[in-house]
């Protein structure tokens, strides 16, 4: 089965970007030439025009195709009227007005879903969720995917809780979405938001088919957390094997290099972690 390479970058937070890292990433992506670059949201720090323009200019410098979903920082939070009435106007003007971005080839079928919301019943509006109305699109897209293609979903909010942030930020309606992804034989979910790189296998319920959930850190913003340097994921995959290479920024070396490697293999029960 043909293997392919996917770059997963996230939480760019233009407005708080670190220019040497932006330049290093552009050079690496264009030299390596992956099949696709997936961007899992928080393109900007505050959804300002100049931040979206900087994101657009950055994306235009990448040679491979790019698939982008928005994050909670891409909705204007300083202007309640704009937030409630036209939450995606700037995103649409500068990036894309497609909130179901798709990429399809014989090796890769990738669907992006928007998990950021203009309003939330919780006091914390940075929380995200998926909704029932988005699930038929998942079914439609993967029903039409090539059988040889690895199946990937990109969404900003994470499916994995993390002890460092006490479970904060985990996507709403997670079980509903996992069940739908499982039924549609999704292999891999990509997300961001926590600025912590991490990955593990998970299923909607015990005994159901597991898939791989991978989170990327913040790729080049200065909003990284202690112990989690700026990073991105290089994913080499086919329908039987997924390898995630995490590339971290080293302040001493002034460059990105491999800092962790995770391998997963598909079995009858779904995806399982493989000892490195
Ligand atoms: Fe973020
Ligand atoms: Fe976020």
TrEMBL record:
Coiled-coil annotation reads none
- Lineage, top-rank taxon, reads Bacteria
Q: Does the keyword Magnesium apply?
A: no
The alphabetical list of record keywords is: Hydrolase, Iron, Metal-binding
Give the GO molecular function terms: hydrolase activity; metal ion binding
Which residue numbers delimit the Calcineurin-like phosphoesterase domain? 5-196
| Cross-referenced InterPro entries | Calcineurin-like_PHP, CNP_phosphodiesterase-III, Metallo-depent_PP-like
- Which PANTHER family does this chain map to? CYCLIC NUCLEOTIDE PHOSPHODIESTERASE CBUA0032-RELATED, PHOSPHOHYDROLASE
As for family, the record states: Belongs to the cyclic nucleotide phosphodiesterase class-III family.
UniProt-recorded name of the protein: Calcineurin-like phosphoesterase domain-containing protein
């Amino acid at each position: 089965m043909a293997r392919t390479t996917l770059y997963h970058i996230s939480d760019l937070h233009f407005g708080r970007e670190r220019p040497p890292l932006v330049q290093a990433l552009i050079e690496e992506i264009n030299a390596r030439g992956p099949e696709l670059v997936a961007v899992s949201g928080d393109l900007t720090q505050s959804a300002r025009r100049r931040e979206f323009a900087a994101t657009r200019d950055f994306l235009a410098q990448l040679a491979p195709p790019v698939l982008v979903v928005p994050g909670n920082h891409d909705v204007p939070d300083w202007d309640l009227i704009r937030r409630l009435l036209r939450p995606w106007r700037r995103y649409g003007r500068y990036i894309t007005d497609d909130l179901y971005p798709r990429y399809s080839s014989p090796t890769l079928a990738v669907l992006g879903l928007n998990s950021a919301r203009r309003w939330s019943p919780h006091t914390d509006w940075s929380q995200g969720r998926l909704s029932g109305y988005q699930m038929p699109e998942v079914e439609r897209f993967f029903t039409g995917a090539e059988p040889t293609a690895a199946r990937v979903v990109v969404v900003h909010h994470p499916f994995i809780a993390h002890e460092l942030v006490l479970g904060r930020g985990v996507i709403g309606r997670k079980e509903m979405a996992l069940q739908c992804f499982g039924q549609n034989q999704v292999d891999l979910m990509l997300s961001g938001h926590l600025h912590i790189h991490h990955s593990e296998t998970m299923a909607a319920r015990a005994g159901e088919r597991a898939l791989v959930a991978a989170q990327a850190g913040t790729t080049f913003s200065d909003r990284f957390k202690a112990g989690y340097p700026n990073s991105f994921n290089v994913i080499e995959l086919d329908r039987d094997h997924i390898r995630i290479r995490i590339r971290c920024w080293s302040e001493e070396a002034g460059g990105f290099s491999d800092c962790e490697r995770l391998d997963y293999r598909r079995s009858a029960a779904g995806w399982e972690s493989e000892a490195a």
